[in-house]
Design a protein that fits this description.
This protein has helices at 16-28, 30-36, 47-58, 108-122, 137-145, and strands spanning 2-5, 63-70, 73-81, 93-99, 127-133, 149-155, 162-169. It has 171 residues and is of the alpha+beta class. Strands 1-2-3-4-5-7-6 form a seven-stranded mixed β-sheet, with helices on both faces. The chain is globular, with a radius of gyration of 15 Å. This is GNAT family N-acetyltransferase.
Length: 171
């Protein structure tokens, strides 16, 4: 698997072929998007909506969008934040890790998570956190299988949704 940081053109646009692939990735995960409410119609996710969502992510200081490719195809995406807005939280965060629904259960999610963790470890970070939406039982089971432990339950800052906060030491 290869990770590529998402780098829009100077005008903020994404290359058409990449945007098409990312839209297909997002659209394949309609069950997650129905839970998250991030898109008005999770069964009809459009390129302009994906482009706007990614532009919003990239506008956050310290955020990085990583595109995962295998065999030349986009198989996943990881969105990270080098620091949480709460100054008392020293850890970087994984804001989103999504694998194409047709490619799930093939190890891509595990590999993508491991590559992100390794990037943080190489930067000297000692732990990483993430939040899993309430009701995303498959997501919670996935992260727990990778060694993440629930450390809190709270509402997310962006949309006030109930979440479990998980952390994994990177030592």
């Amino acid at each position: 698997m290869i990770l590529e940081p998402l780098t829009p053109a100077e005008d903020g646009a994404l290359p058409g072929e990449l945007l098409t692939e990312l839209t297909a990735l997002y659209a394949s995960n309609h069950v997650f998007h129905a839970l998250s409410g991030d898109f008005p119609d999770p069964d009809d996710i459009r390129p302009e909506q994906v482009a706007a969502a990614l532009a919003d992510e990239l506008s956050v200081p310290g955020a990085e969008v990583l595109v995962a490719r295998s065999g030349g195809r986009v198989v996943g995406i990881g969105i990270t934040l080098d620091r949480h807005p709460d100054p008392a939280d020293p850890d970087p965060w994984i804001g989103l890790l999504m694998v194409d629904a047709g490619q799930q259960r093939r190890g891509f999610g595990r590999e993508l998570a491991g590559l992100i963790e390794e990037r943080f470890r190489a930067d000297g970070r000692t732990g990483v956190r993430l939040a899993v939406l309430a009701g995303n039982d498959a997501g919670l089971a996935f992260w727990k299988s990778l060694g993440y432990e629930v450390i809190d339950h709270r509402r997310d800052l962006e949309a006030d949704r109930p979440c479990a906060v998980l952390r994994k030491p990177l030592l």
